[in-house]
């Protein structure tokens, strides 16, 4: 019946096979490189004969997602010459790497962009942006088939990839390190041998790479690149591999977090002291990795906050540790009657409990923690025991930093003693200074998890005249297809519009089976590759803010007919969302087009900037 219906409307419909997860194997993403080719059966046999794959029980994997198929479609073999960059610090990671032969050099610190050879991101010229206004199509979501589908017979146009997916030679590093190690100030490096797995932290955490890794072998270094969807599925069906990854995550993540902290990293510790600190420090996870699911359910049912926001430390408790946020967010609140009032939130690298610890050290008298800390969705924390901080870390922090911390604490105490007792405050060393944002507004931001957004569309409804210039400007820059909807959650005179917020933690990426929704490796913007999007709706359903929409696509070369899946007789959908006008100069067109300064793209983690705009 479905087939007959498609035939009946064939004049306005273009019948096409709906894309599937593995229509575009990972290896084809290098189609513009000489090395690109499908994995051979011999290579698959060799991979399955070496650890960690030889240690896996293939019977645990379902027939539809077999270990062999995962390796065939979600991995690719790559060859690097000495000096080629495998990963670069600061790029966003989408895959992990296993060294099959040869070795790699991990450059832990001391490199700048000059040595990293970063290319500039190409945007459209002003003329190209303007001419698009007059050449935009009349029909919605219009394009050629090759714009929306992977075509194996046209591998050169298979997937739009960043230049960093190919070969980038890290300038002069092999010679610099070999001839004059001191020519790069504070450079630290380490050699990784065959069998080493790296890059898994960035791949699974959707965060930036924290080191640069270059090929180090005089002969070609051979590595297996595993995209994070495959890594996730292998971990799902092989418990031992999952535990191995978790252990790497804990040890490597813990060391990185401590050494990169401006405060902890400033301590002049010996290697034995560092080992003691790392051994005594705890690495904890609070909340659910796929927190968006429980959050949506909680919002729909008006459920219990205690379950939605797991407790990390309670106001009034003894301060038994210094807490540092590694990834995710934590909410800070104070007791107010039988409920809690939100003061603020902490993000990556920020600390909780520092003021109390310093006060205790200075006075010699213990004082309880002054606020409550809860997980706002999903958060990884590093917990340093009080005794470890007092006995090892604090005595070895430079005196000028100690002096600054004590001055800040004294200033905070003075301000607190003179402020009105009803003024809601945040700890100056942890939660930022006083922010003149209405308490109900802060509670609204916290409850709706908008703290996750780095480019949240905030609209002042008192200034907005509903002229829709913002929507028109957005459509003009995207082939007459606006990428946001001018409505959303409201609190007082402010509205958070349904536009992609470019989240710090983009959970929309978690379930994508093909990696179609991903971060641009250089800019970090979350974008969608239309060729590998299979229209599964996972990202749209996962977005906690309903900022991703599914649309039907039209074939320009067939009288703009809607593309249809012949099996079900339904239009083929693709995911779309705001991309911050990444191709156009000047940033988001919506913000620039507003004639009344009613619209602002706001980093919700920048409370002073948010306060300044709201009280302008």
Q: What features would you describe in this structure?
A:
The structure is a single chain. A hairpin with a 6-residue loop joins strand 21 (517-519) and strand 22. The protein has 616 residues and is of the alpha+beta class. Helix 3 (67-74) runs antiparallel to helix 9. Helix content is 30%, strand content 23%. It is globular, with a radius of gyration of 26 Å. The longest helix is centred in the middle third of the chain and has 22 residues, at 239-260. The protein has 21 helices and 28 strands. The protein folds into three domains: 39-117 and 170-252, Jelly Rolls (Sandwich), CATH 2.60.120.10; 262-434, Jelly Rolls; 441-614, Alpha-Beta Plaits (2-Layer Sandwich), CATH 3.30.70.20. Strands 12, 13, 14, 15, 16 and 17 form a six-stranded antiparallel beta sheet that branches. The model is unreliable at 1-10, 31-36, 109-121, 153-187 and 419-435 (pLDDT under 50). The protein starts with a helix and ends with a helix.
